[in-house]
Amino acid sequence: MSAARQVLVAEGFTPPGPADFELPAIFGDSLLFTKPALLLVLAAVMVFGFFLVTSRKMAMVPSKAQYAGEQAYSFVRNGIARDIIGSHDFMKFVPLLVALFFFILLNNVFGIIPFIQFPTFSRVSFAYALAGLIWVVYNGIGIWKHGLFGYLKHVTVPGGIRGPILLLIIPLEFFSTVIVRPATLALRLFANMFAGHLLLILFTLGAEYLVFEADKAAYTPVGVLAFLLAIVISFLELLVQFLQAYVFTLLTAMYISGALAEEH
Amino acid sequence: MSEPPQPRPSGDPWVAFGYLVGGAAFYGGLGWLLDRWLDTSFLFPAGLLFGVGLAMYLVFKLYLNAT
Known about the structure:
The structure holds two protein chains of two kinds. By secondary structure, chain A is mainly alpha-helical. Chain A is built from eight helices and no strands. Chain A has one domain (about 5-260). Chain A starts with a helix and ends with a helix. Chain B is mainly alpha-helical. Chain B has one domain (about 15-65). Chain B has helices at about 15-40, 45-65. At the A-B interface, helix 7 and helix 8 of A face helix 1 and helix 2 of B.
């Protein structure tokens, strides 16, 4: 324990930790329905509602809402789906990728929206579930495209390598594509959201403590500074939240494109 | 093929990371299991190094092929 931390603990400040992410049940004792679960549903409803409202009255001269919806849609359609999967096959996967991107984005941005302030994917199980879904999707596409054994060969035999070394490489390739890939997909999203939220809790709780609870008057300006920094970090978090939603969708598109590819 | 050139499918920059972790985990795990079975202690680190080495070979091979 460092000296600074010892001082703070002695004065009664409890540093935030992983326990701050374990939120109580909303109804009764059932831990099936907690705040992140509620946020997950809220995000799904909001994404659905947004695209419903913006696409309901389609007009040649778009209204502001329709324009916003179309911009959002074509950002993912052209910027991710078409660029990565290629102009031949991409349309089939646009609904998945658009829904995925805005669903994750909203869930992440919940982390800095006042009174909500919790990024859903800072609970790792949600990130695992989402990555599991993507895992089923891209492996399913690969099996549908190449057949089960064709796909197994596709993911385990890298192009350009011949000879007995393949015997050593096949398990490695299988391990890295089938097991490591979904795990990194989930952990990257989770860890970014977790760390960002923890940082925000630390700065805001620290500011609150220094201003209102520490006895020394000299701590007050430090607390105010910490609070200002919390606001700055919120903007940094907005960037991270957007970036993580983008990266997750981008990698999903890459995995789909890899499963569809004829040759490595 | 009259289509415009499509981006390379294996453009995932995390593929190298996947190989390294996968190599260490798979061959390290194999070494660990053999260690338990044969009652030795050197196969776990040996497997770990072998797995990482193999992964690096693979990464170099793929990236050199790509350029």
